[in-house]
Write a structure and sequence with these properties.
mainly beta, Methylamine Dehydrogenase, Chain H, 2 domains, 15% helix, globular
């Protein structure tokens, strides 16, 4: 997790604690020095990227050895060391609809699912450098999309086109991802089937209820399904208020639905008793995408106007706007890390609509967010996903024969350890004296004993 990881090194190179002489460090704030070094690295990155990389690594290690991780030092190491994808996963069988249209990580471990054409591919990503496709939840005659895992990671829900561009829900048992089993169907009713069926699926925090986004002509509402027995899903009686809802999200901590409505507001509804839902509050504005933090206290909204808003909903009846993330382009996808400290936002570049930009934000302090790093891929899809440990970012890229899932290692600790293996990334004593004269020199990366 980017903003709150203990230092743990398993790479061959060793990151060692800094030893500073007393006479030169009595009054030195090492964390301040690390931040200033990160600023110097940013200023040099365009004209001298090699020196910037060495300064970035040193700034990060200085902060780590002071048992502090800052947005500035984390950003420095991510920008310098994670710009290149570690792996791209090509669609194995492109088919007639070859683009990748959704990607999701299991909350229970290093398993990723992505949908393309008639397939929901299951990928082990224990090592992001060597992902392995281990299973295929295939439907032979239907286009699959909108993959989402249950909270325990044992089930996968996808949308399936019935052949007429109307979508139903399908449940798979992925306890053994090498042999996924189709176990249940969420069948739209007669009215729904006459229109578009379902547009999205969302698991409740206990995994026993699914909210299915429905389109019924000009009106819309979520259908709730009881999936205690996933082999026989049961649709609950219509009970959630009709708001001409356009999109839905479930809180990960409580039976709380967020519903974006055609009244240009996002409304929170408590469905502890689905037969008697309780309105809690509403926040104004048009919404493209939304996400709850894992603790359920923070809510991110990607507005159609572009900015992403961060709301404190710890007191659900009185939501409070904490910050606005001003970045060009409209947000189409968002994901929090499991510790809630990092928010990934997928946007389209306004200057180049075909370019997709994924930005990582440090939201440890929600009212003081900080952009860490941005990545650009050639895609028209805005889906983003973070692994359960927050160390891998997955995005979608390209159409046609080039359709793929892009993986990036975004673990600062792992990136720093890997960089330490290359002596060219280590700051020389001369450069140390030039940029950090207030601290005595000490190599922060050491080769392992032979």
């Amino acid at each position: 997790m980017i903003a709150a990881l203990a230092l743990a090194v398993t790479a061959p190179a060793v990151i060692v604690p800094i030893a500073l002489t007393r006479d030169r460090t009595e009054s030195v704030d090492v964390v301040t020095v690390a931040r200033e070094l990160a600023t110097s690295a940013a200023a040099l990155r365009r004209n001298d990227p090699d020196l910037a990389r060495r300064l970035s690594l040193t700034s990060f290690l200085l902060a780590e050895n002071a048992h502090t991780r800052t947005a500035e030092t984390t950003s420095a190491v991510l920008v310098s060391l994670s710009s290149t994808p570690v792996k791209t996963i090509k669609v194995p069988q492109p088919g007639s609809n070859p683009f990748v249209n959704s990607v999701a990580f299991s909350p229970a471990g290093a398993l990723l699912a992505f949908t393309a054409d008639r397939h929901a591919w299951l990928v082990k990503v224990t090592d992001p450098h060597n992902p392995m496709i281990v299973g295929d939840a295939e439907h032979p005659d239907s286009w699959l999309s909108n993959a989402v895992f249950s909270p325990d990671g044992k089930k996968l829900a996808v949308l399936r086109d019935d052949g007429t561009h109307r979508y139903l829900g399908q449940l798979w048992d992925v306890t053994d991802p090498a042999y996924p089993k189709r176990i249940g169907v969420l069948e739209p009713g007669a009215t729904e089937a006459a229109d578009r069926g379902y547009d999205g699926l969302h698991f409740s925090p206990d995994g026993l209820t699914i909210a299915a986004d429905v389109r019924e002509g000009a009106l819309s509402l979520p259908r709730l399904w009881d999936v205690h027995d996933a082999t026989q899903p049961k649709q609950m009686p219509d009970s959630v208020p009709l708001y001409n809802q356009l999109s839905t999200a479930f809180s990960p901590k409580e039976p709380l639905l967020a519903l974006y409505t055609a009244q240009a507001e996002t409304r929170f509804v408590d469905i502890t008793d689905p037969r008697a839902p309780q309105n809690q509050a509403a926040i104004p504005g048009t919404t493209e995408t939304m996400a709850f933090s894992p603790d359920g206290h923070t809510f991110a909204v990607g507005t159609t106007a572009g900015p992403v808003q961060i709301w404190d909903i710890s007191k659900i009846q009185k939501p409070a706007l904490k910050a606005t993330l001003n970045r060009p382009g409209r947000a189409y996808g968002m994901a929090f890390s499991q510790d809630g400290h990092t928010l990934a936002v997928g946007t389209h570049d306004q200057g180049n609509p075909a370019a997709f930009v994924a930005t990582l934000w440090d939201v440890t302090t929600p009212d003081q967010p900080s952009a860490l790093v941005s990545y650009t891929d050639g895609s028209q899809w805005g889906d983003v996903a973070l692994s359960a440990d927050g160390d891998i970012l997955a995005t979608l890229s390209h159409y046609g024969e080039g359709a793929e899932v892009v993986l990036r290692d975004i673990s600062p600790t792992r990136l720093a350890a890997k960089a330490c293996e290359d002596g060219g990334n280590r700051l020389s004593e001369a450069d140390w004296q030039s940029y950090i004269p207030q601290l005595s020199y000490r190599a922060l990366c050491l080769d392992p004993p032979k």
